[in-house]
Design goal:
Layout: E1 4-5, H1 15-23, H2 43-60, E2 66-71, H3 74-86, E3 92-97, H4 100-109, E4 114-120, E5 142-144, E6 147-148, E7 153-154, E8 166-169, E9 186-190, E10 201-206, H5 223-228, H6 238-253, H7 256-276, E11 281-282, E12 294-299, H8 305-314, E13 317-318, E14 329-332, H9 339-355
Parallel strand pairs: 1-13, 3-4, 3-5, 5-8, 8-9
Antiparallel strand pairs: 2-10, 6-7, 9-10, 11-12, 12-14
Helix pairs in contact: 1-6, 2-6, 3-4, 7-9
The structure holds 4'-deoxy-4'-aminopyridoxal-5'-phosphate.
């Protein structure tokens, strides 16, 4: 039996997608081989790759003047590749610091650029409001993390940068709700939350930002070289790309990002409601910055936490342990987490509180 898996990533994938992958694993489309055993340049794989990009473009309404790159190295590689591709040496770049992942991005950018801090959470768990942002006015780009996966902090707005290209690490929020891509210069995301298995990184980049890489940028990480070769400069992660394609098809069938966004809103509302209604559970994030994807909570009696995790596991609710740097609990409610999973988690939490008043 499959558990309800609240893991932050790699994370739950739609059961139908896994079933299809299983059914065609040994003999993909009558080829006598699995999809991961054939050339990435074979016409049948190229068709899979092209279809996946077309479906993603449709799902996110990506304008024609944007490239979609299927890369490797995870979101962490983009922490370096964004400055290397977008900013010349010693240029100023603006970053907003809202926690763990923005700080990782900032640390890498400092190796290549002058980083100007345009805003931070001010010591609290929340996203800074637009009127507190102080951009340098001379940056090549401005970077932020729309959803901080570890603390569970999410922006409710897209920062206005007054013409400076906005770069967003959407690893844990891509495809979770409708988005106006035209507001961004570049969006990147590791696949292992809302897209598919790990090993694939998506980059959506406006075409005027492509072709500016520093001379020392490795060619396999130069956005222009990758775009020119339809992300097949070298061997791409073919199985992850195929799986992403199946997830995009599943998402289209589920009604696209508008329908899934509504479902995500309901799931988060239900779980935050259960937390707010209790005396045992507490969420520390400012109410207007609570993440819909990663719901963090602590127990007022921390001594109960191991017991909570053990009992949850026995009830078929897994992946709830918070990140090691913050502790506590975290329930990740990505697209593939069904409403029943959240209902079951809420019922379990109420029952656990009753048994441990
Ligand atoms: N950014 C965010 C917002 C993340 O959640 C993660 C991974 N959890 C990363 C970056 C790092 O991703 P990767 O492991 O793919 O490098």
């Amino acid at each position: 039996m499959r558990a309800f898996n609240f893991s932050p990533g790699p994370a739950v994938l739609p059961t139908e997608v896994l079933e299809q992958a299983r059914d065609e694993l040994l003999d993909w489309r009558g080829s006598g081989a699995s999809v991961m055993e054939i050339s990435h340049r074979s016409p049948s794989f190229v068709e899979v790759a092209t279809r996946a990009e077309a479906d993603l473009r449709e799902l996110m309404s990506i304008p024609k003047n944007y490239h979609v790159l299927f890369m490797q190295g995870g979101a962490s590689a983009q922490f370096s590749l964004v400055p290397l591709n977008l900013a010349p040496p010693r240029a100023t770049v603006d970053y907003i610091d809202t926690g763990h992942w923005s700080q990782k991005a900032i640390a890498e950018a400092r190796r290549y650029c002058e980083v100007h801090l345009a805003g931070d959470a001010g010591g609290s768990y929340g996203a800074p409001p637009q009127d507190e942002l102080r951009f340098s006015g001379r940056a090549c780009y401005a970077h932020y993390t729309p959803n901080e996966t570890i603390s569970g902090v999410e922006y409710r707005y897209i920062p206005e940068t007054h013409g400076v290209p906005l770069v967003a690490d959407m690893s844990s929020s891509i495809l979770s709700q409708p988005l106006d891509v035209s507001k961004f210069g570049l969006i990147y995301a590791g696949a292992q939350k809302n897209i598919g298995p790990s090993g694939l990184t998506l980059v959506i980049v406006r075409d005027d930002l492509v072709g500016r890489a520093r001379a020392e940028t490795p060619r396999v990480f130069d956005y222009k070289a990758i775009a020119d070769q339809q992300s097949m400069l070298n061997t791409p992660p073919t199985f992850a790309w195929y799986m992403a394609g199946l997830v995009f098809k599943w998402l289209k069938k589920a009604g696209g990002v508008r329908a899934i966004g509504e479902r995500n809103r309901l799931k988060a509302e239900m779980l935050y409601g259960a937390i707010d209604d209790s005396r045992l559970y507490k969420n520390s994030v400012a109410k207007d910055s609570r993440s819909r994807m990663n719901v963090t909570f602590t127990l007022s009696d921390v001594g109960l936490e191991p017991l909570f995790l053990e009992a949850a596991g026995e009830a078929g609710l897994t992946g709830l342990k918070g990140h090691r740097v913050v502790g506590g609990m975290r329930a990740s409610l990505y697209n593939a987490m069904p409403i029943e999973g959240v209902e079951k988690l809420c019922a379990f939490m109420r029952d656990f509180e009753r048994r441990h008043p």
